[in-house]
Every structure is written in structure tokens, then in C-alpha cells.
Amino acid sequence: MVNRLKRGATRANRGEERNPSDVIESTKTRRNVCIVVVGLALTTIAIFRMTRNLKILPSTLVQVPKTSHSSPDGGGSNSNKKIPIKLPDFGPYQPAPVETYVLEHVKELKLDVPMPEWTPSCDVYTDSQSTPYHAQLQDFIVELEHYSKLVKDFQIPIKDLRRNITEFDNGICDLVQLHPGGMQALFSRSRQLLSLSSSGWVEPLLPPMRHAQYCFDTSRENLMRIDYILHDFHALCRKLKPHSRTILVDMGASLRYWGKSPVLDLIQLYSKFGFHFDHIYGYEYEKHDPDQVFNDVPQNLDASYHWINVGVVSDTQSRRNPFKLLQENYSPDDLIIVKLDVDTPALERELAQQLLDNPKLSKLIDHFYFEHHVNQEELKRYWGRSAGISESVADSLRFFHEVRKKGIPAHFWV
Ligand SMILES: *[C@@H]1O[C@H](CO)[C@@H](O)[C@H](O)[C@H]1NC(C)=O
């Protein structure tokens, strides 16, 4: 379900609702007071508009302020010159300290136990002695629920952000900020637990590679939650240009997955924030009844959905490798989202490896979601039967970390 939001933006243009000349004035002083008040109001509006224009100028998009409150950059001495928007550059990947800590202590945390053993991976959340970050992680869980609620209730009065972005102005992106202080403000109690990627703030890479609530309640609902994945839509919006195309590649695209595919939740999430996919390429190995697929694709995706009922392959020269299609048809200006979950560990790992090996792909892809099948005890009842799992939880943490360092915000998928 895509929200068609009709509520207009009402903030501006309110100005003067009463005409002072209509007011019957009994004394001269009252008239004077009125004039002064109206004058002040008009000046305020003028100043407000001016500062807004200044803020919209792209000059200082680069660094995110270290403090969580306010960002009165105020810069922009040349408000009349037209400067093309500069895409944000967050610099090299900055992992949250807790992410680095866990990576450096995989041995102590017993996350590097190799197959054929299976490794419990919830200790960081459930054992207060496991890391020095235990208390902050509890705060993080609370803040994450709050964030999810904000996301759930979020609405914007425009359909497609790109229509409101020009070559010179992406101030519209402020509309998709959940908090004026940005993501950091929403996670201020546990602030150092966010990582900074090439698409803005993201969740830290941590076991159990699912929502933390899964450690406390292994319900199917918690298993399939995707709202532990943080999206900095403000940053993502500022990466858009008016001509950017928006693409989702879904490898392992069955739409019948325990009822509803979580990828539909992901598509809905993006659309809620004003990102609509021009093309969705859904690759699926298992042969599906075309009538059933047709019925399962939500009608609002009819114009964008491409159902490709063949399996993907890792051969870089094959037209069944979706990365070939991306490289030959799209550019870094486009917004490209990739989801990989084909339940064949060797194949998906080979495909994922191409993100590390091919710098062109890291320029193209803006978010990567990957269900990496490893020897994680909590998921053994689902993964235990799939042949070919050869890597450990530590391998997975390292791999995602490396992909992020290459410039692709990678997330554990469900
Ligand atoms: C966004 O663009 C549309 C179409 O150009 C326009 O009608 C609408 O007023 C704009 N919305 C805002 C909030 O600027």
C-alpha cells in the first residue's frame, strides 16, 4: 500500500490573514500599533524566507555535526548565485565503536567457531559481561523502537522527491528528516552506536544479524522484522539528482514468502519517504505460475515490476548476472538498491564478493541487503537443512564490514 498523501504543505504563505484597514480603529495609537505589528510580521516572514533559501544552498552538506543538537550552519554568503547541488560525501566508512569492538573480539565472543558447529550470537544483547557496551545496547533497543514508530507514522505531502529537486536546490530533502537534529538526535542516548556510511547513518553491524528483539523472543514476527535496518533518507535524498533513476534489484524474488515478502515492506518504506522505484527487477529461480505472480504484485508496482523467472548466476559475463545489467545501463547518479537472498550459500556469496572486487559496483549501489547464511545457532532451525553453509558469524561480520568500507552500505537481510 502506497500512501497517496494529499495534505498540502501549509507552512508558508500564511502571512496576513486580516486586513488591518478592515479593523475599525478607535484611537490613533491603536492604528500605529497595528502598523508596527504588521510591519514586524512581514519582516519576519522575509527574514525567514531568506534564511530558508540560504539553508537550501548546498555548500556545506559534507560533514555531519558532531553534536546532536542543532545545525546552525548559516553559511552561504552568495545567496543569489546558482550553484549546482553537490552530492554529499561522508568520506570513508566510520564504524560505530561497538562494531569495531565486536569485530576485534570475535574470538572472546566465540563468534568465530567454524562449521560444523553452530554459534550462539545473542550474547552482546543478553549477557551484561559480554562487552563494555551492554548498557548502551539496551538504550539502543529502546531508541530503535521509538525510531520504528516515527517511521511508521511518517508522512510527507509529496509523491516523488525527484520532482521537487532541481539542479540547484535539494532543500526539499529536509522534509524527510525524522528529527531536525538528524539521526544522531534520535539515538542520542546510545549515540556512538551508529555507523556512518556512504548513504548516511546506518545501524551498527552486530549479531544476531536480525532485530535485537529476536534475542528475547524468537517469534516469527521478530524474525522477519526489518526495522532494525536504519535508513538515513535525508542523506539518500541529497544523493538524488532530478534525472536520477531509482532501481531495485531483487535476487530471490518470490513474493510468496510466509505470506508477504519482506521486500514488499522495503519497497513500501522507500515509497513512504518519497522514493519510488522506476524499475524493480525480480529474479527468481523457482518456476512460478504467471497468474499467481501477477496477482501477488501490488497494483501500484505494475509500471515498474519486471518479473524474471530465471535463476541468477555469478558469471560476470552472463546476462543472468544482474550486476552486468546494472553496469551496462545505470550510472552513479542513479539510486540503486540491491537485495540478495537466493538461499544458495555458495552462489550468493560469489555474487556478494563481486561487490568487494568490482569498484564500479560500489559507485553504483546505494544500499545492499543480503541474507548471509552462516553457522548462527539462533537460525539453525531455519538454515540447518540448507546445504553448503561454510562460514561463521565472524566471517559474516567481517564481510559486511569490508563491503561498507568499499562504499556500499550493507545490511543483514532477513
Ligand atoms: C513538488 O512539486 C510538485 C510538482 O512540481 C508541486 O506541485 C508541489 O507543490 C511541490 N511541493 C513542494 C512541497 O514543494
From TrEMBL:
<feature type="transmembrane region" description="Helical">
    <location>
        <begin position="33"/>
        <end position="51"/>
    </location>
</feature>
<feature type="region of interest" description="Disordered">
    <location>
        <begin position="1"/>
        <end position="24"/>
    </location>
</feature>
<feature type="compositionally biased region" description="Basic and acidic residues">
    <location>
        <begin position="13"/>
        <end position="24"/>
    </location>
</feature>
<keyword id="KW-0472">Membrane</keyword>
<keyword id="KW-0812">Transmembrane</keyword>
<protein>
    <submittedName>
        <fullName>Uncharacterized protein</fullName>
    </submittedName>
</protein>
<keyword id="KW-1133">Transmembrane helix</keyword>
<feature type="region of interest" description="Disordered">
    <location>
        <begin position="64"/>
        <end position="83"/>
    </location>
</feature>
